[in-house]
Automatic annotation (TrEMBL):
Entry GO MF terms: magnesium ion binding; thiamine-phosphate diphosphorylase activity
Necessary cofactors: Mg(2+)
Cofactor, free-text remark: Binds 1 Mg(2+) ion per subunit.
Function: Condenses 4-methyl-5-(beta-hydroxyethyl)thiazole monophosphate (THZ-P) and 2-methyl-4-amino-5-hydroxymethyl pyrimidine pyrophosphate (HMP-PP) to form thiamine monophosphate (TMP).
GO biological process: thiamine biosynthetic process; thiamine diphosphate biosynthetic process
PANTHER family found in the cross-reference section: THIAMINE-PHOSPHATE PYROPHOSPHORYLASE, THIAMINE-PHOSPHATE SYNTHASE
Substrates-to-products reaction catalysed: 2-(2-carboxy-4-methylthiazol-5-yl)ethyl phosphate + 4-amino-2-methyl-5-(diphosphooxymethyl)pyrimidine + 2 H(+) = thiamine phosphate + CO2 + diphosphate; 2-[(2R,5Z)-2-carboxy-4-methylthiazol-5(2H)-ylidene]ethyl phosphate + 4-amino-2-methyl-5-(diphosphooxymethyl)pyrimidine + 2 H(+) = thiamine phosphate + CO2 + diphosphate; 4-methyl-5-(2-phosphooxyethyl)-thiazole + 4-amino-2-methyl-5-(diphosphooxymethyl)pyrimidine + H(+) = thiamine phosphate + diphosphate
EC number: 2.5.1.3
Similarity field: Belongs to the thiamine-phosphate synthase family.
Residues the entry annotates as binding 2-[(2R,5Z)-2-carboxy-4-methylthiazol-5(2H)-ylidene]ethyl phosphate: 146-148, 178, 198-199
Thiamine phosphate synthase/TenI domain location: 18-201
Protein name stated in the entry: Thiamine-phosphate synthase
Gene name tied to this protein: thiE
Organism: Bacillus cereus
InterPro entries per UniProt: Aldolase_TIM, ThiamineP_synth_sf, ThiamineP_synth_TenI, TMP_synthase
Length: 218
């Protein structure tokens, strides 16, 4: 077993700057082309989220994940898997992100060892529990209304982020939900280390330009 240490806070914070989340069904053109443009534009972290209507399943899903993972490796961008701890282990992914309704943080951390683990948190209590049990970062939101995820909680606005920081939550935070090139700066100003986006890149006329603009905010 390799001796590993958990990611340092400062490094995690930088990785969250432009956090792209995508599945094949989030794109209107070839997802691999979208991914390449996003990587060229400067995404700092990637999350594979293949779920919802028209999502790939079984072997096709695994094959697609591997294609995206190998692109990430070319650009030295960590590859995170949404929810599916088993798939993350099978692919030897760089980490996993779980929501409140997915597998609990304690068993996820146990299975993932020192790899990156992120947790979605909607309340200070959820955040504190995740931190106490080994999360490396928090996904906080939805900041703005979003059409990508159907099961979202109440919109928090940027004041939701401020609320987390004022409550003494110091771990890296990425803002989630309805974030666009136009409103991304307000999310960072409110205390987030970075922004996570789906459609702002995946449905952009130019994923490259859209990514570049967000990367230019830092």
């Amino acid at each position: 077993m390799r001796e590993m240490a958990r990611i340092e806070t400062e490094k995690m914070s930088k990785l969250l700057q432009v956090y792209f989340i995508m599945g094949s069904n989030n794109c209107k053109r070839d997802p691999l082309q979208v991914m390449k443009e996003a990587l060229d534009g400067g995404i700092t972290l990637f999350q594979f989220r293949e779920k919802g209507e028209g999502a790939l399943t079984g072997e096709e899903r695994v094959r697609f994940a591997k294609q995206l993972q190998s692109l990430c490796k070319e650009y030295d961008v960590p590859f995170i898997v949404n929810d599916d701890v088993e798939l993350a282990i099978e692919l030897d992914a760089d980490g996993v992100h779980v929501g409140q309704d997915d597998e609990g943080i304690t068993s996820v951390r146990e299975k993932m060892g020192d790899k990156i683990v992120g947790v979605s948190a909607h309340t200070i209590e959820e955040a504190r529990f995740a931190i106490a049990n080994g999360t490396d970062y928090l996904g906080v939101g939805p900041i703005f209304p979003t059409s990508t995820k159907k099961d979202t909680k109440a919109v928090q606005g940027t004041k939701g982020l401020r609320h987390f920081r004022e409550a003494g939550i110091t771990v890296p935070i990425v803002g989630i939900g309805g974030i666009t090139v136009e409103n991304a700066a307000s999310v960072i100003e409110a205390g987030a280390d970075g922004v996570s986006v789906i459609s702002a890149i995946s449905l952009a006329d130019s994923p490259y330009e859209s990514t570049k603009k967000m990367a230019g905010l830092y």
